[in-house]
Amino acid sequence: MPKVKTHKGTSKRIRKTKSGKLMARATGQDHYNSRESGKTGTNKRRDLSLGRVHQKLKQVIPYK
Questions:
Q1: How far is 23 from 7, CA to CA, in rounded Å?
Q2: How many whole angstroms separate alpha carbon 59 and alpha carbon 23?
Q3: Is residue 1 part of a domain?
Q4: I want to staple 21 with a disulfide (CB 3.0 to 4.6 A). Which of 1, 16, 17, 47 is the partner?
């Protein structure tokens, strides 16, 4: 059985924690952020925990 290839685009955006949860950066941080409230900007700087819907992504990044 050959090794499974890691999907590099996904591995650069998502990381696995030691407990197996998937974490990703919040979207929409690139530009046009001056119009948003401070609370929204602060929340975008935090990492998001991906839910059960995204658990199939673990198959795409097997060795990470």
A1: 16
A2: 15
A3: no
A4: 17
Tens of pLDDT, residue by residue over 13-60, are 999 889 889 999 988 888 888 888 989 888 888 888 998 888 888 888
Residue 41 structural domain: 8-60
DSSP string, 1-64: -PPPPP-HHHHHHEEE-TTS-EEEEPS--SS--TTS-HHHHHHHTSEEEP-GGGTTHHHHSTT-
Give the integer Cα–Cα distance in Å for 59 and 64.
10
Chain centroid offset of residue 60 CA = 13
How much is the pTM?
Answer: 0.70
- Which phi and psi angles does 57 have, rounded to 5°? -65, -15
